[in-house]
Amino acid sequence: MKRFLILLILPILACGGLTESVSPTVAPLATPTVVPAPQTREASQPVPDTAAAPATQPPIANASSFPNANDYEWKLIASGLRRPVDIQPANDGSGRLFIIEKSGDIRIYENGQLLDAPFLDITDRVNAGGNEMGLLGLTFHPDYKQNGFFYVNYTGDGGDTRISRFQASGNSADSASEKVLLVIKQPYPNHNGGALAFGPDGYLYAGLGDGGLAGDPHKNGQNTNTLLGKILRLDVNNGDPYAIPSDNPFGNEVWTYGLRNPWRISFDRATGDLYIGDVGQGEWEEVDYLPAGAESGANFGWSIMEGNHNYDGEPQSGMYLPVAEYSHAEGGCSITGGYVYRGTIPEWNGVYLYGDYCSGKVWALILSDGQWQSQVMFETGVLITSFGQDESGEIYLASDTGNVYKLTVK
Q: What's the CATH code of the domain at 318?
């Protein structure tokens, strides 16, 4: 993320007063920010029909109103972690959560307990020396229960990005089973992105930042011949170590472009829509959105645009401009992308939750009557490094001070 330098100062401020749950200052239910649909013909299409969604998912594609935040809290479920930056389920029916520690460990939360033994320890090969470097992303193969495959994104020798596959059995992964899929040269130690996710099409998606420094000096965001500033799409079930899907738009790994530092991407499990939290330059943080079935090759604008605002150019036809944004004048500094809630609390069904690292605010984003509306719901007072979603669709957040919380009814 953009401003990990702040971590040297702020963690002490974030941990005071936390016991069994975050008792956040619940933001007043003010008039929500309303943003028109993105300026592309694809984004103006109707919300996808979810009649074919799995039977375990709620039938509602999008929320129509905001829940009353006063009725909910972020309950502490785990503590003592070392800078957790990702939370993922294996989707194997076990109910386990896997939590990344930035230094190179993956820990297991199972049956209400954080297990002592790490699931994976690759601290010997992870370069976590920079504030935005380390073990950054994790996802499990859709057939993990059968093949034991999972994928990680980390910075290794020289700070270069590595996307690798490992294999596991039970609560232990084999650190010697690493198969490196990609090594991507990073010109600077920041803007590494790091998110991984399998899409509804079975392909592996990876979020990469623009390579760092500031202002995208190499203009990687708009250059479709480089993998930086992109979301990549890989077929890991074919080829060695992967194949490029035939409908990737540029004949390489690139699926979408124009991103600065996508810190967390997620697919809505009920609709297949893609949500991206893209960290801004100096003024604006943004949520980008790609509906299921949209044409490939979407351009999210960086560095021509920062949010909905000109940065070093003029808007171009066909750009996917953000569906939500907030300014640093509101106290934030770095967006943490989240998930669409698909759990057991009906009031939250279809609500996309995202946060800000510095301010600890958590927003709700909904698409209601063709308009995107975003509203601050919680002021947690913690440094939000990541959100997570379990097999049941419940949502969690991690703080840089080592805690993990779950959204629950008070």
A: 2.120.10.30
